[in-house]
Amino acid sequence: MSTLKDVAEIAGVSVSTVSYVLSGKKTVRPETLKRIQDAIKQVDYCPNLLASGLKTNLSKTIGVVMWDMQNNYSIEVLRVMEDTICKYGYCMIVCDSDQSPEKEKKNLRRLLARNIDGLILMGSGNNVLSSYRNAQIPIVCIDRAADEAFLTVQSDSVAGGQMGTEYLLSKGRRKILFLGYDLDFDFARKRLLGYKKAMELAGLSDEIHYEILPERSVKCAMDRVEKLLQDKFDYDAVFGCVDYFAIGAMNALIKHGYQVPEQVSILGFDGSDMGKLSIKELTAVAQPKQALGKAVVEYLMRLIRKEKIQEKCVLMEPYIIERETC
């Protein structure tokens, strides 16, 4: 196995210079840095992070606790986070809480036992965050309800709900059915609020119609719309609180002979890649996945470096992805 000494000899520098460069404690001239990087590749040097961690008290590891790993949008953001974490020279350990507060607490204990340097809480968990207050490591949340104890990075769900509704109104739609999710979740409440706000501003308070679904899945939405179709379906648009709901509604409507978007427009929320795989490519309010994934890691790294950050909640603007369903 190659050593720091091997790298130093090939690069023509001292062992301490290689060590400082790898730890980020010292900058060198670009040509020297390139010789060190080339030497590392040549001998396939792998630093002993455990030994390094004993000296610096840093494990170079970030823990990520996900609320629901089956959420396609969350997986797409996770990819961005991993790329960004790697660029900082860290690795990532991911735990899935499977929508269980108890499992989430167990995941936290397991990660803390591994001496992680920082923690990212990802997803829309509706449990109280009090169990994290004594963790004594930097913590940043993404797509969670804002909490004064932790910096939170999220897209603006109220603005997204309003933006999506106004987009449908601009298409001449007036009878818009909103398919919402469990209102215990912050994002679900806010997206419904944005929908209501847009309808009221358009003078359509009497046309506010929404259904709250218990499960975030395509099948759940499809079953609910199937049930509505058995009675009287009097809507010219469906706005899904998440992409899953929009796709489920579209499947049910097309199955029953409705033309999308000629008769009924369908709009999702998230802008996940699965929207490209539906019967018709899904138009959606998209969350800025790249910006969110990068920002949450960059804020965490600043906290690890003990920088002071004034922000408590960082909101990012969603946008419309126009495809085939509106």
Supply database-style keywords:
single chain; 326 residues; alpha/beta; Rossmann fold; 3 domains; six-stranded parallel sheet; six-stranded mixed sheet; elongated; LacI family transcriptional regulator; Peripla_BP_I; LacI/GalR-like_sensor; DNA-binding
The helicity comes to 40-55%
CATH topology of the largest domain: Rossmann fold
Strand order of the largest sheet: 2-1-3-4-5-11
CATH superfamily of the largest domain: Response regulator
- Mean pLDDT across residues: 88
Number of helices: 11
The string of secondary-structure elements, in order, is HHHHEHEHEEEHEHEHEHEEHEE
Radius of gyration: 24 Å
CATH class of the largest domain: Alpha Beta
How would the global form be characterised?
elongated
Give your account of this protein's structure.
The chain is an alpha/beta fold and 326 residues long. The protein has 3 domains: 4-47, no CATH class; 57-155 and 289-316, Response regulator (Rossmann fold); 157-286, 3-Layer(aba) Sandwich (Rossmann fold), CATH 3.40.50.2300. The chain has helices at 4-11, 15-23, 30-43, 49-56, 72-87, 101-113, 157-170, 186-201, 218-230, 243-255, 289-304; strands spanning 61-66, 91-96, 118-122, 139-142, 151-155, 176-181, 209-213, 237-240, 265-270, 283-286, 313-316, 319-321. A 6-stranded parallel β-sheet has the order 2-1-3-4-5-11, sandwiched between helices. Strands 7-6-8-9-10-12 form a 6-stranded mixed β-sheet, with helices on both faces. Helix 10 links the parallel strand 8 and strand 9. Helix 1 packs across helix 3 (30-43) and helix 7 (157-170) packs parallel to helix 8. The protein starts with a helix and ends in a 5-residue tail after the last strand. Residues 3-46 form the HTH cro/C1-type domain. It holds the Pfam family LacI. InterPro entries: Cro/C1-type_HTH, HTH_LacI, LacI/GalR-like_sensor, Lambda_DNA-bd_dom_sf, Peripla_BP_I. Residues 2-56 form the HTH lacI-type domain.
